[in-house]
Known about the structure:
Blueprint: E1 3-9, E2 12-18, H1 21-33, E3 37-42, E4 48-50, H2 62-65
Amino acid sequence: MPYSVSGTDVRGVHTVSRKRPELALRKTRELIKRGCYDVRITTPEGRTYHSSEFGDLPRTPAAGRFSQKHPPSP
C-alpha cells in the first residue's frame, strides 16, 4: 500500500499516491509551492503526518534501496 499525499486549495482536496516516503515528501513540497494548505502524508500503516511532523516521517533505509556490488573495504 502506498503513501497518500493530500493538500487543499481553492478547487478542493488533491490526493495522490507515492511508493516511497522520499517521493511523498517531494510531492508535499510541490503542493505547498502551488499554494495548497493542510498538506499531509498518510503512511501505509495509517499514520498521518501534518506539515509540522514531516521531519518525523520514517525514511527508506539507504541499504534497502541500493545493492552493493563489492563488499565494503576494511
